[in-house]
Give the backbone structure.
Amino acid sequence: MTSRTQFNRWTFGGGLGVGFGSNSYVNLQVSPRIGYKITEQLEGGLMGNVSWQTSDYYKSTMVGVGPFVNYYFGRSFFISGNLQQYFINSEEKYTGYKFDRDETALYLGGGYMQPLGNNAFAQFGLMYNVLWKDKTSIFSTGFIPSVGFVVGL
């Protein structure tokens, strides 16, 4: 295998997010990823995310990092697994109460890929955190939509 062929096995991508809500809620998110095509259908890699949230009542920062694996079929669909370790720090604005917490999430799911040209794709999917617990999780639900872009597939 030549070094050119090995370089072509690398994939890059991620997503950006912005959210707004009541009580001056603002959420900004950046989610980079780097992957390696083990075969034409199987990709493994590392992804992360950073999220900043603020409202009239609190502010928080959440950082997550972990491995992922994607299996592609039909060049239009994928199934995915993603283990994330999250580190969260939050502060209530009126009381000054601060807390730090960490949480592990194991997302399983899949989705659809839309070709954009030049080995670039938009990815749309739905994931479920199989470790999510209703009363103890920092997240309000175990389901998350996923939207991102990847180059190199």
